[in-house]
Amino acid sequence: MKKIIALLLSLFMAACAVSALAVDSKEELHEVVILAGEGTIHIYWTTDEVGEDGNVKEVREEAAAAAKASSPLDVLPPEIRAQLPEGFTTVNELESLKLEGDLTGLEQLPVTFKFATPYEPGSVVYLAVCVPGETREWFLLKGLADEEGSVAVTFDAESLAKIGNHNFVLMAISEK
Fold first, then answer.
1. Of 19, 25, 112, 116, which residue is 20 to 30 A from 44 by alpha carbon distance?
2. Is residue 1 part of a domain?
3. Residues 127, 168, 69, 144, Cα dihedral to 10°
4. pTM
5. Interior CA angle at 109 toward 81 and 161, to 5°?
6. Distance (Å, rounded) from C-alpha 106 to C-alpha 132?
7. Where do runs of H (alpha helix) occur along the chain?
8. Strand partners, 123
9. Residue 111 domain flag
10. Number of domains comprising the chain
11. pLDDT value at residue 26
């Protein structure tokens, strides 16, 4: 009898451990932690509607409205759209993120994003980044899909300076 109880208790504890590892929320699933230099930098998905310096919800709503009207790319400034190669018109991801950590003296920050949409390994994915504030600042980064379908990209010093420790919006743009 004791063996049966011990077995049932073990099975119960194993089930609890597995359910504790199950993740329902996007924020928990997609946190990206990057070690850089002496400290740790965190980039994580956020549901914050208004950051310290700008309204990411407003940017996301404008992109959704543009998608209904014609294309979510219509939310991008003309100079950013002009940087996209021909055929890059598919937007599968539009996310709000937050970067935290000490960026002092950091020249570049390689990051791999695991999106809900897996991308074909080796394919190019452009990431349009918007830093909302008094004036929105958009810039474009070129990423490459890895073997798992995640997108690897490197934020340079200029990009990191624009983002700082603030909320930003990320739009993943791929070919048709």
1. 19
2. no
3. 10
4. 0.74
5. 65
6. 22
7. 2-21, 26-29, 56-69, 78-81, 157-163
8. none
9. yes
10. 1
11. 37
So what's the pLDDT on residue 51? 52
Tokens 């700008």 identify what position? Answer: 54
Residue 120 lies in a domain: yes
- Whether 105 is in a domain gets the answer yes
Classify 114 as helix, strand or coil: coil
Least Cα distance to 147 among 115, 119, 117, 169 occurs for 119
Compute the distance between CA of residue 154 and CA of residue 172 in angstroms, rounded to an integer: 14
Note the pLDDT of residue 8: 35
Q: What are the per-10-residue average pLDDT scores of the chain (176 residues)?
A: 41 35 35 54 71 67 79 91 94 86 85 90 96 87 95 92 86 91
Residue 8 amino acid letter: L
- CA torsion through residues 167, 94, 126, 116, sign: positive
pLDDT of residue 167: 84
3-state SS assignment for residue 24: coil
Write the CB contacts of 81 (distance below 8 Å, at least 6 apart in sequence). 73
HSE value, Cβ hemisphere, 13 Å, CA-based, for 40: 5
Which domain, by its residues, includes 64? 25-175
Q: How far apart are CA 176 and CA 14, in angstroms?
A: 44
